[in-house]
Design a protein that fits this description.
This protein has about 90 residues and is mainly alpha-helical. The protein is built from four helices and no strands.
Length: about 90
């Protein structure tokens, strides 16, 4: 089964990408740093955008967020965070 990226994830990624790359197509296997140009400052922007898009706090998940290498990794990470947030509700 081919993974489809969620629109809210794509929008969050675009908010963290450098302006020259913002119109680049994003695939599940796209590398956050190499292909999408998201550096450490971009990761901070991305975390805020993800919190807004998914309605969860990522304050306790900085290390796993920094470990995500691809768009697919990031989507999987967000689903884990959503599951944990639902379990704590």
């Amino acid at each position: 089964m081919i993974m489809q990226l969620e629109p809210r994830l794509i929008n969050a990624l675009r908010s963290a990408m450098p302006k020259p790359l913002v119109h680049k197509e994003i695939f599940p296997e796209s590398s956050l740093s190499d292909e999408l140009g998201i550096d450490s400052l971009g990761l901070m922007t991305l975390s805020v955008s993800l919190e807004d898009a998914y309605g969860v706090s990522l304050e306790d998940y900085v290390e796993p967020l920094m470990a995500a290498k691809s768009a697919a990794d990031l989507q999987t990470f967000m689903h884990i965070c959503l599951g944990q947030a639902a379990g704590n509700a």
